């Protein structure tokens, strides 16, 4: 396996992605881990990420010395290259010629790192993002590629197998990036490229057993794929020491609460506490129209209900969460505080209040890997492919006050929209699709009678990570069919509109 040490680059996660795509298992850890950690990790290769610091600033981060004593290949990327130079006896200086974006590099000397990719004299475009540059190489190093801004765009100490690149091989704009990482992994580190979800499952189970011993674990199910996969994995590891708690807010999609209960109790035979708290949530939400207040109320009520259930169970010492890799990186990164666009809801705060340990068996995985693990654990395909669904549920898809009646109306419209999407084979091409019930009444005519009812908006987007999104380009005939069905079949809706806004400037959810 490969160790990636994070110096705070926005691209660190991408490095891990690229390595995993080669079926090589890797983990990201902060650059501040102690030497003993590096020695015990047993990496076959180490990658040092980029980062925002300057090596000549006081207290800028350094790689643990053990990295260079482990006897394995090391690849320093950008800041990783600079700290490697600084630590091994070279010099790094602020540069007057900052390089950002596209740059052209020329290979100067043959190296296993570029074997089969570039021959000496060949040029290629890469993606740079740095202000400092290496001005003198440490003993043993030679320059192997140069760019206009730097004679040391790539450097190597072939004897020790230490490599540094000033550019970012992990971003798609560096066309040779994937091949370069392949050379590093397969030719230099000699790893096999045979990592699989099956192997991950075995490892994860062993780690869960070791962590929790004979203590009880509680896991909150949301109906989404992450918490379901976490629960299945933990159940496989410790059986009925796990109790799942499903706080049913009454704000889920049509039929989903029932599906979750049947899947866990019926299909998997996993103990499940189903807390039907719909009326409590509606009571707390009565007359609340401000989106942030709705979110805060739902989050707080959720924690109260969950905590009350947890306290009823004996011997619970751990809380299981379906935290994914992107969340982990987000919370350890060096980024400053960002503006709150929406308060996201989870069970944060509960572990401290109840003195619970955390079990997070998906911490190393990306969303598509969680889906693969779900399949590996026998989660039915429709569940595996399920679109993401926000914690505050349908409450943030009903602008204005939320009532039981409006929830029921929205559930019907949403069900019809998704049915049509499934029938047309579009479900898996869409990141999220849903209906929104607007607090706007319009006039219509049905039969010979005037109607005065609500407007329903349809939203469907494509996205890779939910951070940016674009509207899904349905055929007009498809939208016409859905609109027709909704107006005919759902009492209380007499008009349907489609949302063409991308993110940014819109968000995916309406509130
Ligand atoms: P927005 O609306 O901010 O949503 O573009 C981005 C993604 O996040 C989901 N979302 C949430 N997920 N708890 C969640 O677990 C929340 O409170 C929450 N709010 C939004 C949203 O559905 C989309 O996938």
TrEMBL record:
InterPro entries: Class_I_gatase-like, GATASE, GMP_synth_C, GMP_synth_GATase, GMP_synthase, GMPS_ATP_PPase_dom, NAD/GMP_synthase, Rossmann-like_a/b/a_fold. The lineage of its organism: Bacteria, Pseudomonadati, Pseudomonadota, Alphaproteobacteria, Geminicoccales. The gene is guaA. Its EC number is 6.3.5.2. The active site is at 78 (nucleophile), 168, 170. Pathway: Purine metabolism; GMP biosynthesis; GMP from XMP (L-Gln route): step 1/1. Gene3D superfamilies: 3.30.300.10, 3.40.50.880, HUPs. It catalyses: XMP + L-glutamine + ATP + H2O = GMP + L-glutamate + AMP + diphosphate + 2 H(+). This is GMP synthase [glutamine-hydrolyzing]. Catalyzes the synthesis of GMP from XMP. GO terms for molecular function: GMP synthase (glutamine-hydrolyzing) activity. Pfam families: GATase (PF00117), GMP_synt_C (PF00958), NAD_synthase (PF02540). Signal peptide: none annotated. It comes from Benzoatithermus flavus. It comes from the Bacteria. ATP binds at residues 222-228. Keywords: ATP-binding, Glutamine amidotransferase, GMP biosynthesis, Ligase, Nucleotide-binding, Purine biosynthesis. Residues 195-386 form the GMPS ATP-PPase domain. Homodimer. Transmembrane segments: none annotated.
């Amino acid at each position: 396996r490969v160790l990636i040490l994070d110096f705070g680059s926005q691209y660190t996660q991408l490095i891990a992605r690229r390595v995993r795509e080669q079926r090589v298992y890797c983990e990201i850890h902060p650059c501040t881990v102690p030497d003993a950690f590096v020695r015990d990790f047993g990496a076959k290769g180490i990658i040092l990420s980029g980062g925002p610091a300057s090596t000549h600033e006081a207290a800028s981060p350094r790689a643990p010395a053990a990295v260079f004593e482990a006897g394995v290949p090391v690849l320093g990327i950008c800041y990783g290259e600079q700290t490697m130079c600084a630590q091994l006896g070279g010099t790094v200086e602020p540069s007057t010629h900052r390089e950002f974006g596209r740059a052209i590099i020329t290979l100067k000397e043959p190296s296993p790192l570029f074997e089969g990719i570039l021959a000496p004299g060949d040029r290629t475009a890469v993606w740079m993002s740095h202000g400092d540059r290496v001005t003198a190489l440490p003993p043993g190093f030679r320059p192997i590629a140069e760019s206009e801004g730097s004679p040391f765009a790539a450097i190597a100490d072939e004897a020790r197998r230490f490599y540094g690149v000033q550019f970012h091989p992990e971003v798609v704009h560096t066309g040779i990036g994937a091949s370069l990482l392949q050379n590093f992994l397969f030719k230099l580190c000699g790893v096999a490229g045979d990592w699989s979800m099956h192997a991950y499952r075995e490892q994860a189970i062993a780690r869960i057993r070791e962590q929790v011993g004979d203590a009880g674990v509680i896991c909150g199910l949301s109906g989404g794929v992450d918490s379901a996969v976490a629960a299945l994995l933990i159940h496989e590891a410790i059986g009925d020491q796990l109790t799942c708690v499903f706080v049913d807010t009454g704000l889920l999609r049509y039929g989903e609460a029932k599906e979750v209960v049947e899947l866990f109790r019926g299909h998997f035979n996993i103990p499940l506490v189903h807390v039907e708290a719909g009326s409590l949530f509606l009571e707390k939400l009565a007359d609340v129209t401000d989106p942030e207040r709705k979110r805060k109320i739902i989050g707080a009520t959720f924690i109260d209900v969950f905590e009350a259930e947890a306290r009823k169970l004996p011997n619970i010492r751990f809380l299981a969460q379906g935290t994914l890799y992107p969340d982990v990186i987000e919370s350890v990164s060096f980024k400053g505080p960002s503006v709150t666009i929406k308060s996201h809801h989870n069970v944060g705060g509960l572990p401290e209040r109840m003195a619970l340990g955390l079990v997070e068996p998906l911490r190393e995985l990306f969303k598509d890997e969680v889906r693969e693990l779900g399949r590996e654990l026998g989660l039915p395909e429709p569940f595996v492919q399920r679109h993401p669904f926000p914690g505050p549920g349908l409450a943030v898809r009903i602008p204005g006050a939320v009532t039981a009646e409006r929830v029921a109306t929205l559930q019907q419209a949403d069900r019809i929209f998704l049915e049509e999407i499934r029938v047309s084979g579009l479900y898996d091409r869409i990141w999220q699709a849903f209906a929104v019930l607007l607090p706007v009444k319009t006039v219509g005519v049905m039969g010979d009678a005037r109607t005065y009812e609500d407007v329903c908006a349809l939203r469907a987007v494509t996205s890779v990570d939910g951070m940016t999104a674009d509207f899904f380009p349905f055929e007009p005939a498809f939208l016409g069919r859905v609109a027709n069905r909704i107006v005919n079949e759902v009492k209380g809706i007499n008009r349907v509109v489609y949302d063409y806004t991308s993110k940014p400037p819109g968000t995916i959810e309406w509130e």
